[in-house]
Amino acid sequence: MSFVTTTKYIPFLVSLLFIVFVVAGCSPFSDSESKNSKNETADEKSTSINGEGSDVNVSTGEKRKNTGEYDKALEIFKLDLASDLKTYGPDDPIIARSRNNIGLMLVIKGEYDKAIEYYELALNSYVKFFGPDHPQVAIVRNNLGEAWGNKGDYDKAIEYHELALASNLKTFEPDHPEVATGRNNLGEAWGYKRDYDKAIEYLELALASDLKTLGPDHTSVARDRKNIGAAWNYKGDYDKAIEYFELALASDLKTFGPDYPGVATIRSNLGGAWDSKGKYDKAIEYYELALASDLKTFGPDHPDVAIDRYNLGSAWNSKGKYDKAIEYYELALNSYLKFFGPDYPGVATIRSNLGAAWDSKDKYDKAIEYYELALASDLKTFGPDHPDVATIRSNLGSAWNSKGKYDKAIEYYELALASDLKTFGPDHPDVAIDRNNLGSAWNSKGKYDKAIEYYELALASDLKNFGPDHPNVALRRNNLGEAWKNKGEVDKAIEYFELALASDLKTFGPDHKDVAIDRNNLGAAWDSKGDYDKAIEYYELALASALKTLGPDHPYVAGARNNLGLALFHKGNYDQAIGYYELALASDLKTFGSDHPKVAIDRNNLGSAWSNKGDCDKALEYYQLALASGLKTLGPDHPQVAAIRNNIGAAWSSKGDYEKAIEYHELALASDLKTFGPKHSKVAERRICIGLAWDYKGDYDKALENFKIALGILEVSLGSDHPRTLSVRKNLESAQAKLVTTD
What we know:
The protein is an all-alpha fold. The protein has helices spanning 55-66, 70-87, 93-108, 112-130, 135-150, 154-171, 177-192, 196-214, 219-235, 238-256, 261-276, 280-298, 303-318, 322-340, 345-360, 364-382, 387-402, 406-424, 429-444, 448-466, 471-486, 490-508, 513-528, 532-550, 555-570, 574-592, 597-612, 616-634, 639-654, 658-676, 681-697, 700-717, 723-742.
């Protein structure tokens, strides 16, 4: 009996930070994969209003803001307000201007409630002085919309942006740039709500009027194209996103030259789109260009430079170079901490992604440490029901799930789901992610019907939001396939895996990582059906594309080699299996070092192959190495440790030392009982192994006791006619017959 891994979709989606929405101060609309983004200057949306009086101070404040010296800018704007209050009445436009500028700085610093307070004072003054339809009133309403959007209240954001647009339509012609900016802002707000079609509708109206008024090479046209590109990226149409980003890049290069901050932003956007397509080297190329120009413009500690480094970290993480990812994330974190302090939302995002990188390295305790820091600061900033808080809770759930603490994982996932339902309603993509994650935790607990229920809810809403060929839909189908496979309904699993493969091929082409995962899952399903040649065919395709896309030392490539080894193992080709397992071990040692859980799995698989070749001593040598590192990294009660102990028991049984075999099998049973409870299929498997060992020892009463318990579990979990259930029934009948004979 061997413990093997099946490379499949990670059941949770981690925050990334690579798509840049151009209007200032806000992140682009994003789902749980993308939380914060590069902030540009506030010229497009969060508009600083300059009027008469205190021009020197305002000018200095603007300069400080534009160089990223936000605390200094805030201090100057507050001095400006104090000075103007002595000269002018409280509702004078100059006072309103100062309050608006203070609001801008507070938004950049992540202090949204304070910003709203200043904006509302500014709005009241402008309305009193100018009336409700003045352009300055529209500017402050747009800024209020931005602040509410950052707080996660997207309906309130839309309300303010609609008021601003309505008054600008009264004041200006429908193709005026201010009207186009208002439509951009509404497009962004609908994007935050994940209604990308509505977002694109507003953004295309903005683009059409800006093209008519300003011509194709104006910076506002580039802005419109960038934002439309971001919307298509979130819809999963990466080629269309790249098309818009490239048009935006060409015009800004023509207007400003290669080192303009806006050009760096578009290059970051292009990097993000190529990252989504799985072309990580191309993504890194764009991110490095963005970093080089931002370093030249701003120096090493500017927030834009931090975001470039962050994006590079995300791309290296996707390539499986986790140490390099962590290096970039830490540089980004240090400069954000220096600029904004520990409770800024962007700091929480970087910590969350550092947690994800450590999670990828299977350093779950370190991951949890970063996630908890991120959660604490976002709770302080936003309160318990903000989408960013829900995302971090999902990430914490995933780390606990990886540690084998499924109940704790479910607790975090349920908190995330409850707050996302409250914020977005039942059909939102973030709610689908929460339900998907709950499905994965219940799947890990062996509650396959409950898992399927959550996966189907997630699939239904993603189909409604994205259509049948979006990568999120493929992910849901893969997870449904996995749950049906675990229930023993392999044909149903294959049906879902084939749907996932067809849509990912359509979206990405044959050499994307997601396509490799789909083929791998199909290989695992055919392996379960006993059609090893078909399994090998899929595994070889998966390995070939993973090698082409990711290179020979990526963890997915090691996983694909392990799975090929497994199919060959099942065919009885133990030498070939060992060859693949050794390649997997060599690359995982290179990537992770000797005490990583993936290395333990490789050694465990080698142990199983040597055991089946009849070399039990060599098998035990690999198993003991696997057990030592599993205990060190995962602790004594993790399911992986239980599986290795079970395999050690099987090796001792093959050597004829049944006492020792039973000792290891019972250790495995004890920890699985603790993790899963008495009715889980893994507990049944442990009971079967213990029963067989007692059978070999000739103690048929004890064998029968364990076979009966195992049979009862499997009849409920898999059904009476499942091959595994029938096999255990035969073991039980054989033991009963032996007992009668001995009596």
